[in-house]
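Technical appendix A lists one of the benchmark inputs used to test multi-chain prediction within the project. The record comprises three sequence entries:
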Amino acid sequence: MFDGYSLSELGSIFAMQGFAGLILFSVFVLMALGLAIIFGQMGVINMAHGEFMILGAYVTFVCSHLVGEHAPWLFPGYFFIAMALAFVASGSLGMLVEWSLIRFLYRRPLDTLLATWGLSLIMQQIFRSTFGAREVGVTLPDWLMGSLSLTDTIEVPINGLFVMALTMTISAVVYAVLFRARWGRGVRAVMQNRVMAGAVGINTEKVDRYTFGLGCGIAGVAGSAFTMVGSTGPTSGQLYIVDTFLVVVFGGAQSLIGTIASAFTISQAQSTMEFFLSGSMAKVLTLLTVVGILMLRPQGLFVLKVRR
Amino acid sequence: MTRSFLTGTRGELLGVGVLALLVLLVLPLSLDVFRLNLVGKYLTYAFVAVGLVLCWGSAGILSLGQGIFFGLGGYCMAMFLKLEASNPEATKIQSTPGIPDFMDWNQLTSLPWFWEPFHSLTFSLAAVVLVPSALAFVIGVAMFKRRVGGVYFAIITQAIAAILTILIVGQQGYTGGINGITDLRTLKGWDIRTDEAKLVLYFVNAALLLGCILLCLAVRRSKLGRILVALRDKEDRVRFSGYDVANFKTFVFCLAAALAGVGGAMFTLQVGFMSPSFVGIVPSIELVIYCAVGGRLSLLGAVYGTLLVNWAKTSFSESFPELWLFAMGALFIGVVMAFPNGLAGLFQTHVVPRLDRLRGRGLPPVPGPTRMAAE
Amino acid sequence: MSSDDIRKDSHDALRRKLLLGMAALPAAAMMPRLAFAQAPATAAINTTGLAVTDSTVKVGILHSVTGTMSISETGSVEAEKLAIQQINEMGGVLGRKIEFIQEDGASDWPTFAEKSRKLLVNDKVAAVFGCWTSASRKAVLPVFEQYNGMLYYPTFYEGLEQSKNVIYTGQEATQQILAGLDWVFKEKGAKSFYLIGSDYIWPRTSNKIARKHIEKNGFKVAGEEYFPLGHTQFNSVINKIKLTKPDVIYAIVVGGSNVAFYKQLKAAGIDLKKQTLMTISVTEDEMLGIGGENIAGAYACMKYFQSLDNPNNKAFVEAFKKMWGADSVIGDVTQAAYLGPWLWKLTVEKAGSFDIDKVAAASPGIEFKGAPEGYVRIHENHHLWSKTRIGLAKADGQFDVIHETAELMEPDPFPKGYQ
C-alpha cells in the first residue's frame, strides 16, 4: 500500500498516524480515569459510567444553547464553563447515588454491577424523556474545529490537541489530589485498609462519597469533551463501557499509572492495526489480544501489593 | 429457622411437581397458541437462568457472557435448519443453488467447511451442547487456573461477548451478519411454523427444562454441589483442603454453558431465527437479572423470575413503552437492595411459615409455587 | 385487549358480516352520509376475515418506540399517522375509516416477529406499515408469508429480496447508488473512490454495487473499510484517506458512528467544500445529531429531501409540521413511510377489495401522483419507481437539491452484474 509515495509523504503520514494514536490514548485515559478511581480505589463496578459521561455531554449541549441564545459574546469560551458544570452535575449526582445506593453494597461488588446497570437504564430513559430519542448536535466554538498545518502535509486537529491537553491536566490534578494532598492520603488509606483507616480517625463514609463523586465528575468532564469527537444520544454511553472497563482491568485495577499505561498500549495497538487492517478486524484483534494477555496475566500490567 | 416441610428433597420435588403442573397443564389450558408460544420463548431464557443459579448462586462465578452460549447453541441449531431450508430445489434462483441465501449474496460459491457437518441432525444436536461447553471450557481453564474470579471474570466474559458480536456481524458471508440466520422452515421435513408444531415444541421445551432442573438439583445435592457452595464462601479453605478449585469451577461453568446452549437451540426452533442481538452484552446482563429476580440461590425461583420479568416486559411495553426502562431499572436496584434473594427469598420468609402453620393445624398441605434452597 | 375480547370481536364481526351480506346493498344505497354512500358491502370486499366492518378497517403500525432504533423510527411512525389521518379526512378507504393498532418492536427482532404475528393473527389487520432495519424485516417476513399479510416497508435497503407480501416504498440499493455515482463521474470528473461503511449488510451490499459500478466505468477504488456499529474513532482511516487522496469519499456510516465520523473528518482538516464526499446514509434526521456545520458541503444521494420544491411537498411539510411541531424534520425514510398508507388506499380501491391476494395482485402499476417526492409507481417486483436526487448539505441542517434524474429509476432488487 505504500507504492508510489515519496519518503516525505510517508514520513508525514506516520507522524499523523502517531498523532492519531496519541489522541486515541487521551480519549481512553479520559474515559478510564474516572472509572479507575471508582473501580480501582473503591472496588465498585459502575456500569452507569457511560451514562455519567453522557450527562456531561448533555450539560454541554444545554450550555451551548443557553450561551448561544443569551450571551453570544461568551460563545468562544463557553466550553470551559460547560466542562466545569459537567463536572459539578455528574459529581453531585455521583455523590447522591453513592449516598442512596452504593454505600449499602461495598461488601458485594458484583451487586454494585447489577444495581448500577439498573441505574444506567433509568438514566437513559430520563435522557430520552428530556432530550428526545434523537441524537443532539452540540455546536462548538469555531476555534475548536479545524486543524493546524505544521507542514504542507502534516495537519493536526485542534480538538485532538485540546483533548490531549485536557487529559494531561486532569491526570495531573488527580495525581496531585490523590498523592500529594491530605485528602488523597485518606482515600488511599481507606482503600488499603478500611477498618484501620476508620480506627485512626478518618471518616471513611465521607471519603467514599467524595471519591465516588470525583470519579463521576471526571466522567462528566470526559463526556463534555467527547462532544467534540463523538455523538450525544440517550444510549451513546453504552458504546464506551466495554472499552473503558478493559482499559482499567488491563492496567491493573488499583494502579492509576497502570490505567495510563494500558490506555497507551491499547490505543497504539488499535490505531496501528486500524491502519493496516480493516476497521472491524482491528477492533476484534485488539480486544482479543487484551483478553488473551489478561488470561495470561490476570492481575493486569501493574500490580499494587495490598494486604486485604 | 425451624425446618419446614418444604425443605429437603421432598420439598424440592414438590416444587418441581408444582412447576410441572403449571407449565405442562395450567398454562397450555389457559393460553392460546400465540401466548403459549411467548411463554415457550421465555422458558428458553429460563435454561440460562437455571444455569446461572448453579454458576453464580452456588459457585459464586458471575458470568456476564451467558448470551454467548445461548447464541452459540441457537446458531448451531439454526445452521442445521438453514441448510435444510436451502435445498437446491428451494434455492434454484441463486447463482450457487444449495447454499444459504446470505452466502450467495456474499459471493460464496461453496459451503464453508465448518458448515458441512451441520447437514447432520445428530451432529447439530451434539454441537448445541458441545460447542458452548467447549468454549466455556477454554475460558474456564484459562481463567480459573490462574485464579481469576469475581469482577475480573465478569468483565472478561463481557468483552468476549462484545468480540463475538462484532465477529458474527462482520463475517456476514459465513454467519448471516446482523440479520442473523432467518427463514427457517422445517426440521427433517416437519414444518416448525405451524400452530401444532409450536404446541409440540412448547411441550418438548418445557419437559427439557424440567429435566435440566432435576439434573441441577441432583448436582446440587451431590458432594460436588456442596464443594461448590464451600468454594463460593471460602475458596481458600477448599483449596487448602486439597481440592483443585479450578476444576470444579470449570465444570460448573461448562454445565451452565451447555444449559444455555440447549436454551438457545429451543429458542431458534420456537422463534424461527437466530441473530447476533442475543449474543451481546445487553441480553447477557438481562439474563442475569432474570436469575436475580427469581432468587440467585433457587433453581425454581429462576424459572419464575424469568417468566415474571418477561411477562412484565411484554405487558409493560405494550401499554407504557416509555415506562418500561424505568421499571426495569427499578427492578434491578430493588432486587439488589431490598430482596437479594429475589422471589424465592420472599417465598421462604413470608409464605413458607404460613404454610407450615396451616399444616400444623392439621389442614392438608398446600403446595407452594417455589422454595428456596437454604442448606 | 385480551385475546378473549378479540375472539369475541371477530365472532361479532362475522355475524354482522353475514347479516349485512344480505342487507348491505339496499342499506348502503339509502345511507344518508355522503362519504359512505358508495361504500360496498363488507362481505364482498373482505372474503378472508380481516378486521373490516361497515365503517372501519384496522391496520397495524409496527415500529420501535423504545430501544436504540427508536431514534430512527419515530419519524416513520409520525408520517404514517399523518397519512392515515389525512386519508380518513378524505373519507377513508372504500368508505371505511382507518383505525390503527400500534405495536412496539422495541428494537428487538423477535419482538417484531411476535408483534407482527399478533397483528396478523389476533387483530387480523388489513395491512401493516412498519419495520425499519433489515434485520427486523427479515424477522417478520416469514410471518407475513405464512399468515398472508401485507407489509409496507419504508426504508432504503440493500435489495436482494422480493415478496408478494411486502411493498418496498424506499429505494433498493441500485436506485440510490448508480445515478449518484454517474453524477460524480460526470460533474466532478471523479476517478478514484474511498468506500467506508458500518459493518453490516446494508453498507457492505451497497458498497459492493458501488465498487462494481466504479470499476465497470474504468475508475479506481482506492480503499474499502468497515467499522463495527457504534465505533467512534476514525482518525486512522482518515489518515488513510489522506494518504490515498481519493477524488471521492463514499460514506455509508450509520448511527452514533456517523456523528463521530463527520466531526473527526472536519477536525482533521478535510474541508468538504474541496474534498467531494458522497453519502447515502445521511438524511435530515441524521443531520440533527451531526450538526449541519460539520457536514456542510457533502453530497447525499436520496429520493427525497425536505427542501424539495413542488406543491405536493409544500403541503406535506406544512401538514407534518402542523401535526408534529414546527421543529420536526423530515428525512427520506419519513417520506417513504408516508407513501405506505396512500399506496395501500389506492391499491385497495383499484382492487375493490381488502383481500390480501387481490391487493398484492393489484399493486403493480399503482400510481401515486400526490407523493411529496413527486410521482411514484409500483413496479412488478413490488418496489417503487422513483427518481434519484442529489442534495448538497447546508449548515442549517437542510439540503439544496442540485440534481435529479430525468426519468424514474427502475427498481432492481437482484441487479445482474452487480452481485
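The interface with chain B takes residues 3, 65-66, 103-104, 106, 108-111, 113-114, 117-118, 121-122, 133-135, 138-139, 141-142, 146, 160, 199-201, 204-205, 226, 228-229, 419 of chain C (CB under 8 Å). Residues 1-37 of chain C have pLDDT under 50 and may be disordered. Comparable benchmark entries are summarised in Table A2.
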